[in-house]
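Notebook B, p. 112. Complex prediction, attempt 2.
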Amino acid sequence: MYDFEFAKPGTIAEAAAALKGEGAQALGGGQTLLPTMKQRLAAPELLVSLSGIAEMQGVCVSDAGEVCIGGATTHATVAREAAAHYPALADLAGRIGDPAVRNRGTIGGSLANNDPSACYPAAALGSGARILTNTREIAADAFFEGMFATALEEGEIITEVRFPVPQVAAWAKFAQPASRFALVGVFVARFADGVRVAVTGASSDGVFRWTEAEAALGASFEAEALAPLSPPGGDMISDIHGSGDYRAHLVKVMAGRAVAAAG
Amino acid sequence: MTRVEMTVNGKPVSGEVEGRTLLVEFLRDRLRLTGTHVGCDTSQCGACVVHLDGAPVKACAALALDLQGADVVTIEGVAAPDGTLSPVQQAFNEHHGLQCGFCTPGMIMSATALLRDNPRPTEAEIRDYLEGNICRCTGYHNIVKAIMAASGQDVSAVAAE
Ligand SMILES: Cc1cc2nc3c(=O)[nH]c(=O)nc-3n(C[C@H](O)[C@H](O)[C@H](O)COP(=O)(O)OP(=O)(O)OC[C@H]3O[C@@H](n4cnc5c(N)ncnc54)[C@H](O)[C@@H]3O)c2cc1C
Ligand code: FES
Ligand code: FES
C-alpha cells in the first residue's frame, strides 16, 4: 500500500472540507478500501476517516416512523439496534460477511461502494430508502447506477440512510461459499401501496428491481404467485461460481423463499 | 510519521507510525506482540483477529492511526498475568483444538468474543460465528468441540475426530 496523509475529523462539515482536496478519499470501516489499497487499485493521497463523527453513528426512529441509520454505523450495530424496528434489515446486516467484518464495515461504505454482490443495496432499493448526504437527499431508485457506480459526486458523504418500514419484509441470501457475499440475494418488502423486490448478486448492472415479481406479488403475496414468471432477463453475471442462467434461476428461487419467510 | 497512543492488553503504548501502518503491523513490528498472526493479509482468514474496544476485528484491515485511544486486547492478553490459561485456551489444549497452531490466536479471540455474547452456543452457532476464521489444517471439529467444552457443555458424546 502506498503511504498517505490521514485525517480523522469530528464533524461532517470538517470531513466534507477535507474531502474537497485533490486525491482525498473517505474511509468508512476500511473493509473494502484497505484491501483495495493493498492491491494498489486505489492510492488516495489523503484518507479522511469518518469513524470519529458522532453525528453519523447509530440507529433511531424518526417522527415519520422511518428507521434512520447514521452513515458510519457498523453492520453489527444495525444488526443489534434495528432488530426491534425493522427485523428484515437487521437480519440482512447480521449476515454480512463474518463477525469481525461486521464490527468495522459500515452502511455508508457498503452503499457508496455498490458492489454488485453486496447486501445493503438490496435493502435500500427494496425498502425505497432515502440516502442523505452532506449536500442533498437521493432516492434509492436514483442512487445505484450500475456495478460500483452511484449517483454520489466526488467527495460527497453518505451521512444517513432512512428506511420506510414495510408491513412485512424478508431477506433471502444464497451466500457464495468462499467470499460470503451474496451469490444471489433478494429483498422483498410489502408496503400498503405495493410490493418491492430488489435483487443483488445477479446482474452485471448491480442491484435491480424485479418489476414483474413486484406486480405479481402485489396481486397476491404468495410464493406461488411467482411460479408463472420467467426468471428476470438482462445481463446476468456469469463466473466460476455460477452461470448467468443459474443466477437467473436462483433469483426466482430466492424471491420465493423471501416471500415465504415474510409470510 | 504521527504518534499513535492506545491501550494494548491493559498497558498504555505509543509509537510513531505512517498513515498506512496497519494495526497488525503496529502490534507485531513495533510492540513485538507476534502472537497475532498474518495468514492472508486480504481480510479472509481471521488469523489476525484481536479485540478492539471489546469486539473482534481483523487487525490486518484497520489502520493504527484510526485507533487513537482505543483499547486493544491480543492473544497475549488473554491468559491471567500469572500465566493461567483462560477457559477457552485450556479447552483448546485439552480437546486438541489446534494442529500447527497458526490460526489459533484468531480462533481463540473469536471464540472468546462469542462466549462473552452467548455463553452457551449451539454447535451451529459456533460454526456460524467462526465463518471468518479459516483453519488451514482443517481441524474444525475439535475447535468447535473445545469451544463447547469451554462454555461448560458436555462434549463426552461428541466423537473424537
Ligand atoms: C471477508 C469479507 C466478507 C464480506 N462479506 C460481505 C457480504 O456478505 N455482503 C456485503 O454486502 N458486504 C460484504 N463485505 C464488504 C463489507 O460489507 C464492507 O464493509 C463494505 O462493503 C464497505 O464498507 P466499509 O465501511 O468497510 O467501507 P470502506 O472500505 O471504508 O469504503 C468503501 C468505499 O466507500 C467509500 N465510503 C465509505 N464510507 C462512505 C460514506 N459514509 N460516504 C461516502 N463514501 C463512503 C470509500 O471512500 C470507499 O470508496 C465483506 C468484506 C469482507 C472483507
Ligand atoms: S491476516 Fe487478517 S484476515 Fe487473514
Ligand atoms: S491449526 Fe493449523 S491452521 Fe489451524
